[in-house]
Design a protein that fits this description.
The protein has 2 domains: 91 residues, Immunoglobulins (Immunoglobulin-like); 342 residues, 7 Propeller (Methylamine Dehydrogenase, Chain H), CATH 2.130.10.10. The chain has 1 helix and 35 strands. Strand 4 and strand 5 form a beta hairpin. With 468 residues, it is mainly beta. The longest helix has 19 residues.
Length: 468
């Protein structure tokens, strides 16, 4: 009897050993294992910007932690991820159970440079021409996406001209000539008046000249008037009831002062509020309305008769009450731009100001990002070397996205980076938030010329294929 009992135990032992001959692992997890990390990937070779689906096959796990190999971590069970740059990435999954035991499994994926044509649309810009985007927005009359672009003939006699374009649902555009470019220009905006008239404003600078060019058309595109100024510069406007507040700078008693000019619904200016800050020149590049009044972002600087024509540049934040009286201001003394802004042309670009859902304020211009609290005390600052001075920023409530040279970057409300997407653009003046997705028109350098692309991402900077 004892021999029979021994044989039964021996058979059971041999059976269990035979099961171990098929080792458990990601492709064959052992259901009897107490904890086994395991995941599959939808593909092991993919393109930049392409979705990678991770499918979990772990056994006995109650929590999951993925290290994606690019500095990003995820805790979803089956995450979808996007890589913004090419390279070999090791994805590591660490799982844990209720007993606080852990187990780790890794896989490698290869990310190749994306063929950007798969995601972006490239409108034709003829060889020998630059196509430079200066502004993008939504036409309030018909809801179409519009852009203001500068077309420069580099080899012929076509000169340099401003055009207004609107995109249809297939991203095809129609272009209307607006004006010639007389001097340097790297920013523009348009105000659609209730009357149907359209007021286009372009920066107009030389090393020492700091001015604005304006042209106005009616809704039949008949030219109404044009004004060139060498003593004031407008950067944008805000609607104020039936009026409009144009903000920028204006020369007064041999010094440039921040200027907020009130215009009626027909575009006629009837009041201007000027302010100076110490003995420096000053300007407003962007302005927003808030519950207590207005906040404006710009700079103070010295303007010289000899080179360098601009020195001592420092970012400026201004708080106005509802009557446009200055209630407080802050000058940020240790800006990296102090030695980089040397001419009026350097002031000729995009300024962006956003207040986030927690009250913090983000300011971005000339590649420098500054985040401050609601009273103007600095929280963080970043500088993106080599960035052109017409770049964009858009608020997402508790976060924001900005553009820099060949990168889109997402930050939290304190200015800490969340995500980065490499893309080919070098010039991007505005990002539009359209139903939660981001759309942009960017210029990019190509063999000594500037060409255009249309692009889109979701709010997490995952590219959207506009060609599908």
């Amino acid at each position: 009897m004892k021999k029979i009992y021994f044989l039964i135990i021996l058979a059971a032992f041999l059976t269990s050993c035979s099961k171990d001959d098929s080792p458990s692992g990601p492709d064959n997890p052992d259901p009897n294992s107490t904890l086994e990390a395991c995941f599959e990937v939808s593909k092991e070779i993919l393109l930049v910007g392409e979705n990678l689906q991770i499918n979990n096959c772990s056994v006995g796990a109650s929590s999951y932690s993925y290290n994606l190999g690019n500095g990003e971590t995820r805790t979803e069970e089956n995450p979808t991820v996007v890589y913004g740059k090419s390279g070999d990435y090791t994805i590591a999954l660490t799982v844990s159970n209720e007993a606080m035991e852990t187990n780790t499994f890794t896989r490698q994926v290869l990310v190749n440079d994306a063929i950007v044509e798969d995601f972006f649309i490239f409108p034709e810009v003829a060889e020998g021409f630059n196509g430079i985007p200066l502004e993008t927005g939504i036409n309030p009359v018909n809801g179409s996406i519009y852009s203001i672009e500068l077309l420069e003939d580099l080899v012929g006699t076509g000169g340099k001209k401003f055009y207004y374009k609107e995109l249809d649902e297939n991203y095809e555009s129609t272009a209307i000539y607006i004006a010639d470019k007389p001097y340097n220009s790297n920013s523009a905006f348009v105000n659609f008046y209730p009357s149907g008239n359209m007021n286009f404003v372009f920066s107009r600078t030389l090393d020492g000249l700091y001015g604005t060019q304006e042209v106005t058309y009616n809704n039949a595109w008949n030219f109404l008037n044009g004004i060139n100024s060498s003593s004031k510069h407008s950067y944008g406007y805000l609607a104020d009831g039936t009026n409009f507040l144009y903000f920028g700078t204006e020369e007064d008693s041999d010094i440039y002062k921040t200027a907020v000019e009130t215009r009626n619904s027909s575009g006629d200016a009837f009041e201007v509020v000027l302010n100076s800050f110490g003995d420096a020149n000053s300007m407003i590049g962007d302005m927003i309305e808030v519950e207590s009044g207005y906040i404006a972002f710009g700079a103070v600087f010295s303007k010289n008769l000899t080179n360098p024509k601009i020195t001592n540049y420092k970012p400026l934040l201004i708080f106005f009450d509802s009557g446009l009286n200055v209630s407080a201001h802050a000058i940020y003394e240790d800006s990296v731009l102090d030695s980089k802004i040397t001419s009026s042309n350097d002031l000729n670009g995009s300024y962006h100001l956003e207040q986030l859902s927690n009250g913090n304020i983000a300011m971005y211009a000339h590649g420098e990002l500054t985040v401050v609290n609601a009273s103007g005390t600095r929280i963080s600052s970043s500088y993106f070397e080599g960035t052109e001075n017409n770049q964009a920023m858009v608020s997402l409530g508790d976060s924001f996205v900005l553009s820099s040279n060949e990168n889109l970057r997402k930050f939290d409300s304190n200015g800490s980076p969340i995500k980065q997407l490499n893309y080919p653009g070098n010039y991007l003046p505005e990002i539009l938030n359209i139903n939660g997705d981001l759309f942009f028109i960017a210029g990019f350098d190509k063999e000594g010329e500037i060409k255009l692309l249309y692009g889109s991402t979701d709010a997490d900077l995952n590219p959207i294929n506009l060609n599908e």
